[in-house]
Design a protein that fits this description.
Elements (H helix, E strand, L loop, with lengths): L1 E7 L1 H10 L4 E7 L2 E8 L9 E9 L7 E7 L6 H15 L5 E9 L5 E7 L2 H9 L23 E7 L4
Antiparallel strand pairs: 1-3, 1-4, 2-3, 2-8, 4-6, 5-7, 5-8, 6-7
């Protein structure tokens, strides 16, 4: 499975999404602009997308909700350790109240990895974030023994663009 992401105006991205109704596409918006995400086993219809392999997948992407993308740049040597530790921690995350879907995205070129979560709403995401169960993976670089991050992780938050 692959995910392709492109950016543009919301109007343009919604037209593109509507042009391919049989494709699994989700338009999302934040204060900095809009993205269109295309999840597929095949090729994408985007001209120049960011390209990712889906390493871990739980739940179905929906056209409603609140999306959080944790962007994490990892050293080449640290990739296997990061992927292994994430897969171990994902099992507890997927049972969290309000979580609809989760994707671990490995970039096909360069960095960063993206841990993408889709929540019913922002309130449930914030409730989880304030709990002690947030991903330990995002708090430390593998217990400090090995430095696997190439830069400080950052978060992008989006609202799924509805049909109106």
């Amino acid at each position: 499975m692959n995910i392709f992401i492109t950016a543009g105006t919301l109007d343009f991205l919604k037209k593109l999404e509507n042009k391919f109704p049989n494709e699994n596409m989700v338009a999302m918006l934040n204060e900095n602009g809009a993205l269109l995400l295309h999840e597929t086993n095949g090729q994408t219809v985007f001209n120049e997308p960011r390209r990712y392999n889906v390493l871990e997948s739980h739940g179905q992407l929906q056209k409603k909700g609140f999306v959080v993308m944790n962007n994490i740049s990892i050293t080449d040597e640290g990739r296997p350790l990061f992927e292994h530790q994430f897969k171990q921690q994902a099992e507890t995350l997927v049972t969290t109240q309000g979580l609809i879907a989760l994707r671990l995205l490995r970039p096909l070129s360069s960095n960063p990895y993206i841990i993408m979560t889709l929540w019913e709403n922002e309130t449930l995401y914030q409730k989880w974030q304030k709990s002690n169960s947030t991903l330990d993976l995002l708090k430390a670089s593998c217990d400090g023994k090995q430095k696997i991050f190439t830069s400080v992780p950052y978060v992008n938050k989006y609202t799924i663009a509805d049909e109106s």
